[in-house]
Structure prediction request, 443 residues.
Amino acid sequence: MSDTFAPLGTYYITTFGCQMNVRDSQTAAGVLESLGYVKADSIEDAAILLYNTCCIRDLAERKALAAIGLSKAIKEKNHGIVGVFGCMTAQDGTAKDIMRRMPYIDFAIGTHQLNRLPDLIAAAKEKRRTTLSDEGDAMLDFPLPASYNKPPLSYINIIHGCNNFCAYCIVPYVRGREKSKPMDLILKEAEELLNKGYQEITLLGQNVNSYGNDWGKSHFAELLRALDRLGVPRIRFMTSHPKDLHDEVIEAMAECSHVAKQIHLPVQSGSSRILKLMNRKYTREGYLTLVEKLRSAMPDVGITTDLIVGFPTETEEDFNDTLSLCHAVKYDAAFTFNFSKRKGTAAYNMEGEVEKDVMTRRIMTLIDTIKDLSHKTHASLIGSEQLVLIEGEATKDAAQYTGRIDRGITVNFKKASGKVGDFARVRITEAKANTLLGEEIEE
Prediction:
């Protein structure tokens, strides 16, 4: 890291995208705080404005660009520094294009250059604008400090990049090849988080099951067992690629008492034909076999997924295969998306584009299906006792706490003896569309 020391000031980071981006923003905040900066209460009060961008879909890019555009007025008022980083600016030519179109931006970098923040800020103070390419100048966040949210929840990035090259996905092009974080650094970070009062750690990666593959074989099950022995009260992870969900990981999930019985297992489509076009490297039948193994090892495991509607050449039969797979798996929840063309991916120039009105009809049908399945799952839990980590006050009622059960479903319940960061035993009394209601069982 640079020896440049910035004078005391304030910063504000706006984050778009996934949990990986949230964790990258925590790294950026850690670097800034190591220089003496403190987080501002609002974006208008900050001397440094950073935007952590996403490019997984066109809508994500447009949201980020709209927000960045608003920084012009803030900069004119505060004479501050504006920087952009993340997946969007890691795309070929995008950083330079943004700098050309938005002359008030001081620097634009990719996904692996947060170690350069001190130099970039120093250059901006001298009115020098900077654009950095990820190529040949990449440094992952492994040795960098981080500024976490308040307990009890935290994230640890365990692997960067992706080697899968799914036909629709831009991630391998903007985050690079897979690189695993050394296990000793993960365990050290987890121990530090435990000492600071964090009760739940979520392990992050584009494909956590690939952890260690760049060393010769997957070490993910070994990592889960090591964190379990360390005594992390609750361990979650995401995202898992079905093709790499090996029996060893399922066994570790079932046997480790601190690993949550929950898995996010994106299927994307229920049609084997579409899965082949997507380059997902598994079939519908193979995916259902994994679900069977998970439920055999952990009968109450919660399974969530990602689903794409309208991939090129998708027929009604293909879409119906997706609906029937959802009924077969009985997902707790799903993130549903219309197919979004991403320049540079294999699907960008594919023929057989699905008409927008067809895509809209299909995704609305899919959303209704998932809602119905989720409600049935929620209703089946009424009367059960669940262990809930109290994460904070419920959004709509300050008299209630909110938290998640082991399988990841949110529960709201009236405050009793517990406090934020405690585990409470809660009896489920009612099922809502997206949440559960309950009452604390006092000892």
About this structure: The chain is about 35% helix and 20% strand. The radius of gyration is 22 Å. The first helix runs from residue 19 to 34. Residues 348 and 383 are 49 Å apart (CA to CA).
